[in-house]
Design goal:
With 239 residues, the chain is mainly β. It has a four-stranded antiparallel sheet, with no helix packed on it. The longest helix is centred in the first third of the chain and has 20 residues. It is globular and about 45 Å long. The N and C termini lie far apart (40 Å).
Length: 239
């Protein structure tokens, strides 16, 4: 009897380890692809229908706020599903981790950000385009002080490190990157998410736990591939 119990516990432990490590990238969430990285040139595929950025309203305060968890939601379901990517931490799960069927946030209801929610970058050096050192944000649908412009607001989500502040954190009122003018990732009229794709790690033609997700801007040339300055949107944080 004791032997059977030990085997069962080992089986469950092994399953949990596999599930929690599923989709673990060679590189951490929120890092940018460099010319010498091993994932340069990998082919990328279009995300599943319905992919969007949404949040789970934890209910502390109605509407989106600092306590809510933000996801790259990868299905048409109205709730958190397996293989959604957490863009902010939840409990012991780091930003960049994928949801598994045994996690506590599976099935939680999701709310959308509306048409104003978009991925944008902070142009630190004033060049005419998006550069390797420019940090990237998910900018929520919120008013800004300067009509016609987009600026970082409280609870925007950092998708890359910004002045030593980790990706997956939210902008606070007095942070150094609060109320900074943002540029658009992509040309005017680019869809809300911009070009996001996944590398089909197991070759099954479907997006699943083993696949890495990228913000593919600038787009791979000549085809849809992992390129310098892409942002990794999955993979647990290092350290």
């Amino acid at each position: 009897m004791k032997t059977c119990m030990k085997i069962a516990l080992l089986t469950v432990s092994s399953l949990l380890l596999i599930l929690n490590s599923a989709g673990a990238s060679e590189y951490p969430f929120g890092t940018k692809v460099l010319a010498t990285d091993n994932d340069i040139g990998k082919p990328l595929y279009v995300m599943p229908a319905g992919t969007t950025i949404a949040y789970w309203d934890t209910g502390v305060v109605p509407g989106y706020d600092d306590t809510d968890v933000v996801y790259l939601h990868t299905s048409l379901a109205p709730s958190v599903t397996a293989n959604d990517v957490r863009l902010t931490p939840f409990a012991a799960f780091a930003a960049g981790s994928k949801v598994t069927p045994i996690d506590n946030d599976i099935g939680m209801p999701l709310a959308g950000f509306g048409p104003g929610g978009v991925i944008r970058y902070l142009n630190l050096y004033g060049s005419v385009n998006y550069d390797l050192d420019d940090p990237v944000y998910f900018h929520q649908n919120a008013p800004v002080p300067n009509p016609g412009a987009f600026a970082t607001v409280t609870n925007d989500v950092r998708l890359t490190q910004v002045q030593g502040i980790e990706p997956g954190t939210k902008v606070r009122d007095f942070d150094p990157d609060h109320n900074k003018i943002l540029g658009l990732v992509g040309a005017a009229g680019t869809p809300v998410l911009g070009p996001i794709g996944f590398f089909d790690a197991n070759g099954n033609g479907l997006y699943d736990a083993s696949d890495d997700v990228y913000l593919n801007f600038p787009r791979g040339v000549p085809i849809f591939t992992v390129s310098v300055n892409n942002v990794r949107l999955s993979g647990n944080q290092s350290g």
